[in-house]
Design goal:
heterodimer; A: mainly alpha; three-stranded antiparallel sheet; two-stranded antiparallel ribbon; 10% strand; B: mainly alpha; transport (chain A); cell membrane (chain A); membrane (chain A)
Chain lengths: 190, 602
């Protein structure tokens, strides 16, 4: 037994140092040198203050902004300190009630909109931090935002189209719009 | 399946095979003790490790010594991960001042990461210090994968050698697989992930001042910090608002890389690979899919190379590929179909050029249905268990596919090493059944399969179903088990079944609504993970030792060829038959009932 214990202990200790300290610290050094912006969270700053991350969604509820997806994080939506989804099953009444409440709220906020509601606008994302929405979800909100901002619809439509992120290599992922970046662009419109 | 879904699956398989083939040549070279060519500069470090640890590189072990070394090494891992969690409050690299983790959760997590399960009862960003993530969890991501690889290499040696009592040196196998295969791949992959947006730093969490204020309700607290309750005993809620968002930080990419390459699956954050800091883009997602399958696929080719007949490796791989592709088709179709109750309310779930449609609860916009379904099948075919969607919110059939893939014993690619050794045991069973049918002594790769091998095979194949079914039965019978259920009805049963299926088969994904961070579930799933891992490894090493000692028989007219389509079908049939016999009743009570419930509109 002792014959096994000595190599086990020493090898475990040395491989731990190699894979648990040397490797992550070397990766950190290389990542900071090669891709500092990404390695530090793709942060967006304004006047020297961090106003968010390009990758992490924020809660928007004002009429002047595009809204993101429902978020099931607690205690508040888009709590990036504690990520997660609703974990509600598809046949759970609580899930159907939650979708219904989201649906009613959206219809009330978009009285002129006659289209059916895109599914991503009424269902909670997996991380609770989804930074993006589908094109259908963005277009659904055009009229409300245009009206609240007194902006011509065509111009707003163009702004949204300018912010479309397409599929990678025309194949991977879904076309989508980053909500925070779109809203920041809206605020920047003179 | 839509055209983009088929194209993506095709591209995935093409790139996978193109990478796995050259990697298999490299793995074979390293594990046969040859010169590490371009990585020669690591060789002095390797020699130094052996010298300091008193290991003689050329001294091979019998299967018993190999198994004892493996068990001692892994038990040390359990102690280290347990200790780090309990002491993290007093250790460095802890900018968020995370306190010690509870004893039952620490126990569970220690076993979880050592057994390559990486089931997580905790939320990473709210629980673990950076030191625990690196020196505890990242280390086991490497060593548990290397352990699995060592076992399968020992088993392959059992087939490849003859009249020898030795199956290799465990210390050397683990060290070489870690240093020459896992580490270089991880370093490259971690940097690729960072380029895509995965974070890698040691900063404290950052605070962002958001564009709009977030309004929410929270429980009112008294001076001691306990929630105040009204006279009905309900917590008193007060309206609050905040314009601050806490952005978690940490050394994520380095852990993310080995989490995938080692088929570990334990996320840095609670949301795992659904978190934008762990998996920010469709490309990072595609690379993660590839990383999960890369080594398990390459090991099939390594098998063919080491036994001296490459067709043998292709046959095993073909069986895996067929089952995998079928599962992708079923999964994608189920999730794309969506939930009829939502359509009835006026929700648009149709796929179009403007949206992915389908069941988007618990999924991310950048992945949509196609990328999510592929990832879900990859992660549960392999015993990875990373998730890029919340499996609890999958449709009933969409949730049954991953459950059943795990229940097959994680042999469709499976974990690093564990997938192939599991599949080779099924191959032994398949030739045994074929032998019974024609009345001949079964043989596989020139080795006679006799009573001893079949006893060990039976243990290996039966241990996980027994753990899953017995522990599920206990959990649904006692209050401590039922208390964890989040969704009512058949889905609640599925949550528990999924939990023990995932734990015993060392997958680690979850129907995460289940409140599993309780002493009951921490201990029960801990037991499932430990025995699901080591009660397979020890009998498999015994098979390796026994085969290694046998003579090799020459092929004759009565030998069942194990490289053709007939054998592939026989192997798939054996895997599916064993899986179905064990689990169909349990699946009928969970996902099948829920599916009928959903489509009948109740």
């Amino acid at each position: 037994m002792l014959k096994t214990l000595r190599p086990a202990l020493l090898l475990f200790a040395m491989l731990s140092l190699l894979t648990g300290l040397a490797y992550p610290l070397l990766t950190t050094a290389l990542a900071q040198a090669l891709f500092p912006q990404q390695a530090n969270g793709s942060l967006i700053e304004k006047n020297g203050q961090i106003i968010g991350s390009r990758l992490i969604g924020q809660q928007f509820s004002g009429d002047k902004y595009f809204w993101g997806r429902p978020s099931a994080t607690s205690p508040m939506a888009y709590n990036a300190g504690s990520s997660g989804g609703s974990n509600l099953g598809p046949t759970n009444q609580a899930q159907l009630d939650a979708v219904k409440a989201n649906l009613d709220h959206l219809r009330q906020a978009h009285p002129t909109q006659t289209a059916t509601v895109p599914v991503d606008l009424v269902t909670a994302s997996a991380s609770g931090l989804d930074p993006e929405i589908s094109l259908a979800a963005a277009y659904y909100q055009l009229e409300r935002v245009a009206q609240a901002r007194g902006m011509p619809l065509a111009r707003l439509h163009q702004l949204v189209d300018d912010h479309i992120i397409g599929e990678t290599f025309g194949l991977l992922g879904e076309p989508r719009v980053n909500v925070l970046e779109l809203n920041l662009a809206l605020d920047a419109v003179k | 399946m839509s055209t983009p879904a088929i194209l993506q699956l095709g591209l995935f398989l093409l790139v996978l095979l193109a990478l796995a083939w050259p990697l298999s040549s490299w793995i074979t070279r390293i594990m046969q003790g040859e010169n590490p060519g371009p990585l020669r500069f690591v060789a002095p470090l390797e020699k130094l490790l052996y010298r300091l640890a008193g290991i003689r590189q050329d001294e091979e072990m019998g299967w018993k010594s190999y198994a004892i070394s493996l068990l001692v090494f892994n038990l040390l891992g359990v102690l280290a991960v347990y200790g780090l969690q309990r002491l993290q409050g007093a250790l460095p690299f802890n900018p968020q001042a995370m306190a010690a983790v509870t004893p039952d959760s620490s126990f569970n997590t220690a076993i979880s990461f050592v057994t390559n399960t990486n089931w997580q009862g905790y939320g990473g960003e709210t629980t673990m210090s950076y030191l625990t993530q690196m020196l505890g969890l990242t280390v086991q991501n490497f060593l548990s994968a290397a352990t699995g690889a060592a076992v399968v290499i020992a088993l392959i040696r059992g087939f490849a050698r003859h009249s020898s009592a030795r199956i290799g040196n465990f210390w050397v196998d683990v060290t070489r697989f870690t240093a020459y295969i896992l580490l270089p791949l991880s370093l490259v992959f971690a940097l690729a992930l960072t380029q895509q947006g995965v974070i890698q730093n040691l900063l404290p969490y950052q605070t962002a001042h958001t564009v709009e204020a977030t309004h929410f309700q929270q429980a009112k607290l008294d001076a001691q910090g306990n929630p105040l309750k009204d006279k009905d005993g309900k917590p008193i809620m007060v309206d609050s608002q905040t314009q601050q968002q806490t952005l978690p930080m940490g050394p994520v990419a380095s852990q993310e890389a080995i989490k995938m390459l080692g088929t570990n699956g334990g996320g840095f954050f609670n949301a795992n690979s659904a978190h934008p800091f762990e998996n920010p883009t469709p490309l990072s997602n595609f690379l993660q899919d590839l990383a999960i399958f890369l080594i398990p696929a390459a090991l099939c080719f390594v098998f063919g190379r080491m036994v001296g007949d490459r067709r043998q490796g292709w046959a095993i791989l073909a069986a895996m590929l067929l089952m995998f592709a079928t599962a992708v088709v079923v999964e994608t179709s189920a999730e794309q179909a969506g939930v009829p109750q939502l359509s009835a309310m006026g929700v648009d779930q149709q796929a179009s050029s403007l949206q992915s449609g389908g069941n988007m609860e618990g999924k991310e916009s950048r992945f949509g249905i196609i990328d999510t379904a592929l990832f879900t099948v990859v992660t549960t075919s392999a015993s990875c268990g990373a998730v890029n969607a919340m499996h609890d919110s999958l449709t009933p059939i969409g949730g049954m596919v991953p459950t059943f893939l795990m229940q097959l014993g994680e042999v469709v690619f499976g974990g690093v090493g564990s997938g192939l050794y599991g599949m080779l045991v099924f191959a032994i069973l398949a030739v045994f059944i074929a032998g019974l049918m024609v009345g001949r002594t079964p043989e596989y790769l020139g080795k006679k399969i006799e009573t001893y091998e079949m006893k060990m095979t039976a243990i290996t194949i039966l241990v996980t179903p027994i753990l899953v079914l017995v522990l599920t039965a206990i959990a649904v019978s006692v209050d401590a088990g039922k208390a964890g259920i989040a969704n009512p009805g058949a889905h609640g049963f599925s949550e528990i079944l999924y939990a023990f299926t995932s734990a015993a088969n060392n997958n680690g994904s979850a129907f995460a609504g289940l409140s599993a961070n309780t002493p009951f579930y921490n201990i029960m799933t801990g037991i499932a993970m430990f025995f699901g891992r080591f009660l397979m490894i020890v009998p498999i090493l015994a098979i390796a030792g026994s085969l290694s000692a046998k003579k090799r028989l020459a092929v004759n007219a009565g030998t069942l060829p194990t490289h053709g389509p007939l054998f592939v079908v026989l192997l798939i049939g054996t895997v599916l038959l064993v899986g179905a016999l064990n689990y169909v009743p349990a699946l009928a009570l969970g996902p099948v009932v829920e599916h009928l419930h959903m489509v009948s509109g109740h």
